[in-house]
Write a structure and sequence with these properties.
single chain; 138 residues; mainly alpha; 4 helices; 0% strand; elongated
């Protein structure tokens, strides 16, 4: 007599899978944007126009390194989300917040680009924090 095993594991909804796929894609996109902005600032100090009298005045090259490091971390975490790593979800939320804050301070240097990356980071946080988006192994 054949015995059948019943799958009792909760099923992950298609919305949750789509949300994580979306979050991973947006992390990779935002990481690519951050990396390019960082490289542009590192290679050419004159690429970004610095606003006068900005309270949080920082050298453009320093901003470039900040964006480059955050971009690489975002890219790595985005690929880890696709691989289904549980640690990647928490890391993605922290990095998305860090990226949004760093781009807020970068608004006077490159406003539209910074606002776009902030919006992408907010979407990532939304997609990951939806109920059922992260499935923790038992």
């Amino acid at each position: 007599m054949a015995q059948y095993q019943v799958d009792t594991a909760p099923r992950v909804s298609a919305w949750a899978i789509g949300g994580m796929t979306f979050a991973g894609t947006m992390m990779i996109l935002a990481g690519t944007f951050q990396t390019f902005a960082g490289l542009a600032a590192i290679f050419d100090d004159q690429f970004f126009v610095v606003a006068r009298g900005y309270t949080f005045d920082l050298d453009v090259t320093a901003w470039g390194w900040i964006h480059l490091i955050i971009g690489i971390l975002l890219l790595t975490t985005g690929f880890a989300l696709f691989a289904g790593r549980v640690w990647a979800a928490v890391t993605a939320i922290v990095l998305a917040m860090l990226s949004a804050v760093s781009n807020f301070f970068f608004i006077p240097y490159y406003p539209w680009w910074s606002l776009l990356v902030i919006a992408l980071n907010i979407w990532v946080i939304w997609a990951i924090t939806r109920p059922g988006a992260v499935r923790v192994p038992e």
